[in-house]
């Protein structure tokens, strides 16, 4: 019998690979996707494609008021997405969304406990990440402790597992693992600032990490970039 799991599925390369890993581990996944006024809301369509690709039966889309966030990733902020910057993990960029993973994981925790699942998957990465504090192992360990203390399941001894299977992998390693598992990366989108038609900008942090990852992995990049 397959184990129940909940995955945060954004439509991006990392969350798609994480889903492939979770399914390979024997989990029957339910997916959560979030709309929070992000510039790259096209990722929601890609999440829907991934749900179909992975044959995930339960997909919940959650809308969070955009006005609570100040970030270059949100349309209403008026902050430009940084382009062609040297990625320095000691510097937290304007694309950081305040408390985003705390909020997302809280929804996942509620969904998991309500559905009888003990396992939550998130495609966070601490190697190629852009300096986000909520993409570190320390954060996920702390969240698990909170979850086990603050839920009925946890208090009754049925704690939660927060899986971050690609946390310590480089982008090329992530891509190679996805390819090994049969991942079709044309079904994913990573750009922070896509064109209205959905083409990737090629110069934001996420585009640069993604494109270099495909090059270093020796895998053709299926991304459609602006001309």
Please supply descriptive tags for the structure shown above.
227 residues; alpha/beta; 7 helices; 12% strand
Structural summary, described in words:
The protein has 227 residues and is an alpha/beta fold. It has helices at 13-24, 43-54, 100-115, 137-150, 152-155, 171-180, 205-217; strands at 3-8, 27-35, 58-63, 119-121, 161-163. The chain has a single domain, classed as Rossmann fold. Helix 1 crosses helix 6 (171-180) and helix 6 crosses helix 7. The protein starts with a strand and ends in a 10-residue tail after the last helix.
Cα-atom Rg, whole angstroms? 17 Å
Number of helices: 7
CATH-defined fold name: Rossmann fold
Count structural domains.
Answer: 1
Largest sheet: 5 strands, parallel
Could you name the ranges where pLDDT drops below 50 across 5 or more consecutive residues? none
Q: Which outline best applies?
A: globular
Q: Taking strands numbered 1, 2, ... along the chain, how are they ordered across the largest sheet?
A: 3-2-1-4-5
Q: Topology, please?
A:
Blueprint: E1 3-8, H1 13-24, E2 27-35, H2 43-54, E3 58-63, H3 100-115, E4 119-121, H4 137-150, H5 152-155, E5 161-163, H6 171-180, H7 205-217
Parallel strand pairs: 1-2, 1-4, 2-3, 4-5
Give a brief description.
Helices cover 36% and strands 12% of the residues.
């Amino acid at each position: 019998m397959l184990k129940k799991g909940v995955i945060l599925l954004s439509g991006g390369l990392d969350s798609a690979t994480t889903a492939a890993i979770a399914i390979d581990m024997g989990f029957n996944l339910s997916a959560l996707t979030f709309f929070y006024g992000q510039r790259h809301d096209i990722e929601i369509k890609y999440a829907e494609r991934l749900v179909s690709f992975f044959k995930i039966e339960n997909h919940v889309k959650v809308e969070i008021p955009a006005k609570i966030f100040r970030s270059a990733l949100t349309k209403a902020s008026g902050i430009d997405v940084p382009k062609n910057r040297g990625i320095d993990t000691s510097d937290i960029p304007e694309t950081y969304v305040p408390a985003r993973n705390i909020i997302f994981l809280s929804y996942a925790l509620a969904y998991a406990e309500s559905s009888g699942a003990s396992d939550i998957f998130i495609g966070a990465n601490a190697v190629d990440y852009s300096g986000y504090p909520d993409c570190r192992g320390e954060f996920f360990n702390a969240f698990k402790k909170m979850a086990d203390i603050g839920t009925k399941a946890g208090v009754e001894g049925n704690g939660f597992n927060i899986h971050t299977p690609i946390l310590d992998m480089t982008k090329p390693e992530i891509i190679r693992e996805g390819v090994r598992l049969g991942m079709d990366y044309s079904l994913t989108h990573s750009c922070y600032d896509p064109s209205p038609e959905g083409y990737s900008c090629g110069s934001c942090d996420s585009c640069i990490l993604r494109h270099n990852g495909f090059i270093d992995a020796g895998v053709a990049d299926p991304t459609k970039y602006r001309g």
